[in-house]
Specification:
The structure is a homodimer of 351-residue chains.
Chain A: H1 12-22, H2 29-39, H3 42-48, H4 54-66, E1 69-73, H5 81-84, E2 92-97, E3 106-111, H6 117-132, E4 136-139, H7 145-153, E5 158-162, H8 175-184, E6 186-189, H9 201-211, E7 215-219, H10 226-236, E8 240-244, H11 254-261, E9 265-266, H12 270-274, H13 298-305, E10 311-312, H14 313-320, H15 324-336, E11 340-343, E12 347-350
Parallel strand pairs in A: 3-4, 3-7, 4-5, 5-6, 7-8, 8-9
Antiparallel strand pairs in A: 1-2, 2-6, 10-12, 11-12
């Protein structure tokens, strides 16, 4: 986890060492952060571990450059703080496109690949409206909802997070869209250049989609669907979970309706989302969320991990890296303020 | 308000006085309760106020008896305690049918007159499942959702509350259903025998529908609809409010989705209701959709693009990339299987 303060400019040697560490076999994001913690810097880690050589980084950087891309390293000034705050923040991302989009407030839109036409249309309307409210729209470039959201948000700003390397065109149906996002939006990839998108890469990609966003909007999530898992991860990341309801007779909404029952925010239109972030709305609405004072206390840490979807207290303790007693105290205070709801299985959620 | 303890048998003279008081001009339920409070009994109230004579009550009772009906007076042993607890509990009801239904646990199902076929079918499934769990189903005998719920609950027990007098056949489309409920269920009416159902009687009727029930299930409530008002009144009466969600793109769900945002319980199937009352979930997940064999036929292609929200047939043809004739054929087959609903503007949706 990046919990700064990094210097505005990451030292070039340290930056290079981070690239080498991140690109080494068997060093995933968690191990990367542990190594950084343990050795104090990537430079020291590289001096002590068997990591890839500088030449391999140079080769990848060259291929990237030929594709008009470049690296974004954890610690770079442009690396988004929201993403950096994740315990499994990607140490290195490849990017092609407008990196300035990462500096703007963002919302993710995710949903079914086999979405209905109505669902796609709703995703497009929502993406356009959120773009109009100056939100960047993040998604995963999948077919269906993802593609509809990206496409509608092209004029206002959209970021696609790929499951494979940044050069991999996938899915083939979205090749033109992928090219358009490279030209007018931003492509991001955690996997090294040339890596094909394998199955296990998709959930890893999803944590970045939600990690970049203040909230995730779910449209047409069936039971046990990928979007449902993304929503649950997003809640664990402390992101707002917004869900578009649908008929219980259509299994495409089984997951979505379940999320709403579990406390996710029901979405009828963009204002139901925008109002949560305290922005002026085109239509008056009643939903408000108290502004959190995010200081460095236990409360702030708990609030960062706690959302509308029930989370196990055990998990909170683990994530917050504060004592169980502190978490219990914070939860009690929130409960007394009427802001906490307790659920079966020692789970809690914000109200 | 009836806040007893009344004797198990209401004194016949007091009962008659209550009928006279209740049937007098300008004495609504609230005034009735105030008079009872003020004078200590209806007998004393009748001795001090200008009320209708005994002959008028006898005439109504006679007409009622000829229609196989009788009075139910607040204070009668059979008068349901839940209804009696309302501040505006009806002093007198007329009934035809099986009064024992008032002794069983009950849920109301209300919704749009102009309901979609899918909504009606869901109402029927829900009513049958709730009946299976020994709930009596209460509704208002309106077209659409009300009628579908009553009809499905006829074998297990249903109570219809009429807006006019108990002899008034309204709406005409439900004449046969009204007769069936009189024979196998229970009809209730607050208005005197012979009173036509006027507009202002409907909200008054609705308070009885929810007042008889432990909870109200709302299906397809548009913004500013009667069902929405019923739900709000039900919440004020302390009844649980259950709401079936729907697509925000269909205005028939605008009120429903707003209720869920405001804290009503989202309903996916009967178990979501039954579980609130702590009953065993005898009902297997009520709503099921036949598994689609997603092969490469026209049916599979059409199903992939079709959902619960109406979609233009033209757009289906374009998206499916099969001939208009094939799409028409597939839609017809779905319609014959009872799985397709047609809408204005050559639009269709799955049910």
């Amino acid at each position: 986890m990046f919990d700064g303060p990094f210097a505005p400019e990451l030292d070039p040697a340290e930056r290079r060492a981070r690239l080498r560490l991140a690109r080494s076999k068997r060093i995933g994001p968690i191990t990367f952060h542990e190594a950084l913690q343990h050795f104090g810097s990537a430079r020291t880690a590289c001096a002590n571990l068997s990591v890839v050589g500088d030449a391999e980084i140079a080769r990848e950087e060259e291929k990237l450059a030929r594709a008009d891309g470049r690296f974004l390293v954890l610690g770079d000034a442009e690396y988004p703080a929201a993403l950096a705050s994740l315990p499994d923040a990607p140490p290195v991302l490849s990017l092609i496109g407008d990196v300035a989009l990462l500096g703007r407030r963002a919302l993710a839109i995710v949903g079914a690949r086999e979405a209905s036409l109505a669902g796609r249309r709703f995703a497009a309307q929502l993406a356009a409206a959120l773009g109009g409210a100056r939100f960047v729209v993040i998604s995963g470039l999948a077919r269906g909802i993802d593609a509809a959201a990206h496409e509608a948000a092209l004029p206002s700003g959209t970021v696609a997070v790929l499951a494979g390397g940044i050069d991999q065109v996938y899915p083939p149906q979205n090749a033109a869209l992928q090219q358009a996002i490279a030209a007018r939006g931003l492509l991001l990839a955690e996997a090294p250049f040339g890596t094909p998108p394998v199955a296990r890469a998709f959930p890893r990609r999803n944590r970045i989609v939600s990690g970049l966003a203040a909230g995730v909007v779910v449209i047409e999530a069936a039971a046990r669907s990928g979007s449902l898992i993304t929503a649950q991860r997003a809640a664990e990341q402390g992101r707002e979970v917004f869900v578009v309801p649908g008929s219980p007779m259509d299994p495409r909404h089984a997951g979505s309706n379940g999320l709403i029952r579990d406390g996710a925010i029901l979405v009828r239109d963009a204002n139901d989302i925008i109002s949560v972030f305290g922005l002026p709305q085109s239509v008056p609405q009643a939903v408000e969320k108290p502004a959190e004072k995010m200081d460095d206390t236990g409360t702030a840490k708990v609030l960062r991990w706690l959302g509308a979807v029930p989370t196990a207290v055990d998990e909170l303790v683990r994530r917050c890296q504060v004592s169980a007693a502190t978490v219990a105290e914070v939860l009690l205070a929130l409960e007394l303020e009427g802001r906490l709801e307790r659920h079966r299985g020692n789970r809690v959620s914000l109200m």
